[in-house]
Design goal:
The protein has helices spanning 2-11, 34-48, 54-59, 63-70. With 77 residues, it is an all-alpha fold. It has one domain: ACP-like (Non-ribosomal Peptide Synthetase Peptidyl Carrier Protein, Chain A, Orthogonal Bundle).
């Protein structure tokens, strides 16, 4: 989980390293926009070989929930 959050922080421009945690609601971040979404999708594809569908992205609220999808609890490979 820590590695995922670190990669998320590095991927989304303007997010301070160490500022996020598993309960962070990623959509509430001021940096979360359409470009951030595209960068996130590219990161999880490259780093985890996972593609999430739009329903999964809409259902996830926190970084912990995203991590659950990516780590095999509902992610689409």
């Amino acid at each position: 989980m820590d590695e995922f959050i670190s990669k998320f922080e590095n991927t989304i421009e303007g997010v301070e390293a160490g500022s996020l945690h598993s309960e962070t609601v990623f959509r509430s971040l001021k940096q979360w926009d359409s470009l951030a979404l595209l960068m996130f999708i590219d990161m999880i594809d490259a780093e985890y070989d996972v593609r999430l569908n739009s329903g999964q992205m809409k259902a996830a609220q926190t970084l912990g929930e995203l991590y659950g999808l990516i780590s095999g609890d509902g992610g689409m490979k």
